[in-house]
Amino acid sequence: xxxxxxxxxxxxxxxxxxxxxxxxxxxxxxxxxxxxxxxxxxxxxxxxxxxxxxxxxxxxxxxxxxxxxxxxxxxxxxxxxxxxxxxxxxxxxxxxxxxxxxxxxxxxxxxxxxxxxxxxxxxxxxxxxxxxxxxxxxxxxxxxxxxxxxxxxxxxxxxxxxxxxxxxxxxxxxxxxxxxxxxxxxxxxxxxxxxxxxxxxxxxxxxxxxxxxxxxxxxxxxxxxxxxxxxxxxxxxxxxxxxxxxxxxxxxxxxxxxxxxxxxxxxxxxxxxxxxxxxxxxxxxxxxxxxxxxxxxxxxxxxxxxxxxxxxxxxxxxxxxxxxxxxxxxxxxxxxxxxxxxxxxxxxxxxxxxxxxxxxxxxxxxxxxxxxxxxxxxxxxxxxxxxxxxxxxxxxxxxxxxxxxxxxxxxxxxxxxxxxxxxxxxxxxxxxxxxx
Length: 436
Hints:
Helices cover 48% and strands 10% of the residues. It is built from 18 helices and eight strands. It has helices spanning 39-42, 67-81, 93-104, 124-137, 140-150, 153-158, 160-171, 175-186, 214-223, 239-242, 244-257, 313-325, 327-335, 342-356, 364-378, 384-393, 398-411, 414-432, and strands spanning 10-14, 21-25, 47-52, 86-91, 109-115, 201-206, 227-232, 288-289.
């Protein structure tokens, strides 16, 4: 166990001190105990390093709002321990950290396994709305629905103790750190970079996973040059818990046969990894070579640079616009754009969102307060729903939105505030009601 500074992670080691290090990364809402059933077998060959996300499993609540930040904290932890090279297996958010390692620090990574992972986890809107629900209602609604997301119905019914363990694991997570982790998943998108992953990769998924299922797994396999796919029958999202023996066997086979040699600084080259082979006396691995699969992606349109090399604010503007208003709203607006309205939408994206909303002088919470006040003052009630949703997404609580609107009653007039309250009441109810 460890004492944890803010820039590192809570961790533990198991296994012989002289063995190569194998890291196991947890998913959102879980702790390192999700890997308990794998540790006895893995420690026969590796020194197993497990870690907790911030605010999970009693770890200090220092929120990390991006996968890059979590990856940096993991590397800082390993640096402090003198661990330079390792294998890595991660589930869901833990898998995203593994992909980030492969893309940003490939020289540290000997081999990779990603479980129940995706190059993009759903949509940003889904995770930001989950953050709104947690901020308003706490973690109890998320905890109660965890078993149906993580396990098949048969497993949850047959294993009530494990099901209750899952609920309590989420319930005891720090809400602020959970919201930050949701933001990390919301902003994670490496679809365009998968071809740069240069380490041997096992992509493992449960056949019944409804969160990041076989389709997402095949997208990873199609994009990563040296990737193989394993589909575990009868398992949902938390595969290492639901099918521990199958996952352990697949990890042992993968890391035993696809451990890439270290980068050789003298020659500037890395030896190619050996092709996986069957273990004598055992059945062939339940891993199949990657099959070509059609992947259709629309590349973002190139936006011309302004004179003198100044970056066009359209790039940052469309990013901020999507983060604040949500993908669904922006997609709907842009889909309705034609030759007549296109220039106006480009102006909004470039100047309102790229020049003003992206300025560092005010945080987004404050900008939402100002925006709501201005809309009430101007009588623009039709614009309030989207900006109340944006305010919730930017971190304002319903109580804080109420205070903003009370202030507008004094300075903008009671009738205008009355309309705003009726709109906000409906939007807040929609956005903060947990989905069944």
